[in-house]
Specification:
Blueprint lengths: L7 E6 L5 H9 L3 E7 L2 H13 L5 E5 L2 H6 L8 E6 L8 H14 E12 L8 H12 L5 H17 L3 H5 L2 H9 L4 H8 L9 H9 L3 E6 L13 H8 L4 H12 L3 E8 L8 H4 L3 E4 L5 H4 L2 E3 L2 E3 L3 H10 L5 E2 H5 L9 H14 L2 E4 L7 H14 L5 E2 L8 E2 L2 H12 L5 H14 L4 E3 L2 E3 L2 H26 L6
Parallel strand pairs: 1-2, 1-4, 2-3, 4-5
Antiparallel strand pairs: 5-7, 6-7, 8-11, 8-12, 9-10, 13-14, 15-16
The structure holds S-adenosylmethionine.
S-adenosylmethionine binds next to loops.
InterPro entries: Methyltranfer_dom (IPR025714), MeTrfase_reg_dom_prd (IPR018773), SAM-binding_MTase (IPR053173), SAM-dependent_MTases_sf (IPR029063)
Keywords: Methyltransferase, Transferase
GO biological process, one term: methylation
Length: about 475
Amino acid sequence: MPELTGGFRYLELGTGQGFGLCALAAVYPQGEFIGVDFNPEHIAHARGLAEAAGLTNIRFEEADFSVLAEDWPADFGAFDYAVMHGIYSWVPEPIRAALVALLNRALQPGGLVYVSYNTLPGWTSAIPLQHMLRRLQVASSVSGEQIIQQGAALFDNLVQAGAGVAQAMPPLKARLDSLKTQSSAYLVQEYLHENWHPLWFSQVHDELAAAKLSYVGSATLPENYLPGLLAKEQAEVVNGAEGYVMRQELIDLMLNQSFRRDLYCRGPRLQRRSMAQLGAFSVVAGRPLDETEVCRISTSFGHLTIDFTLAQAIYAAVLDQPRTLDHVASLAPMTEKPVHELIQVVTMLLHAGYLALAHSAAARVEALNDVVSQQVIDEFVPYTCLVGAHTPTALGASDTDMAFYRIVRQAPLQNSKQLAAALVDSLRASGRNLVKSGKVLSVPDEAFEHAQTLSEKFLGQTLPLWQRLGVMPPP
Ligand SMILES: C[S@@+](CC[C@H](N)C(=O)[O-])C[C@H]1O[C@@H](n2cnc3c(N)ncnc32)[C@H](O)[C@@H]1O
């Protein structure tokens, strides 16, 4: 993996509105970031955000992948990282070929690629649904949301009429149910995409090989422990197969995998890092550790049970400040555990957000957090994350969190009553009401009471987390 301590160059293909790239640029001032997208509205938005956040190590360029593949601009240079999130299985085959040609030009030897994609076999049961939703859309001029409703009604009728497809594909029923609960924005983006092509692992693997890319592992951390964490008889089937491509596909069949986040490297397959190399990584405590939750960490292959005493000891060791894994491993009771077991527990805690990767670069996140929270509250821009100076992982933040951020930035020392009053005022000023269990709290006393509950939780949990991770300066 290219080292992050010195300078590095990072390319995002299909950067959208640019928040993710701006977050990284703020956290890694030593990196140089370029985001590419062919949608001029996205590029204008992304440039505006970068400028408002005072970021000087980032640029956004409006360009089509197919044009870049033909004519790679000399001033783009070569990259250590290239990222394609939500792109590869949503573009037609010629654009996938263009992306591969482009990566072949863009990536340094040893450079790392991240690619996420809808995966087979997990989407198999959605194919009839997606096909018919698209047919309805092509034949009509109503909104995407209405198409989803029409399609759901059509498939309800099919299922009730005993359609053979529903009998041959029982999970179709669950897909149909999810049409009624998932957000319409997501459903429109997912199902009504004209280039919706779930892919097998081997397809992506073989296509990327043309850019001399070798599979490294999964960015979904627990999946790197497969097949070892599958049931014994499942692991035996996977391990009995020849070659890692076949084994990955058997894992996908075992999990009925529907989404992969894969890492590839330009050059020969990387060896797994040893503790001697991993030991220098620092981690810091993340969200509060809660016994009932931590014992069951949710993964794509079910819930994992973690040794809670060990998890607590690791968490306590990094609660006050980031520590290297070497340091954590040198403390009791971690010294009693084999190193591979310790790394596995740390990995699962990172995955669940109880730990966060830490770093000590001179990040400058205040301006970005200020502009993001201001735009959410005043302009209803739908950002959902804030950025911590001490971790590369953005932190999910609700609209209420954004309001708290602004209040505390303006007046840091607040008790829960003051904070609750400021929250109600701040939301009211932007025409919002607090909502509790779906009920709009328009009566002032009810709103204040709920605001106080939220404030206590914020002061007790969220603010300490933000201070630890550098979203806010420490008190
Ligand atoms: C689903 S969005 C993903 C955005 C972002 N990566 C994210 O995860 O939030 C796909 C993006 O790819 C861009 N895109 C699609 N085809 C493209 C092409 N041929 N050239 C450049 N950008 C393209 C779209 O404009 C869109 O912003």
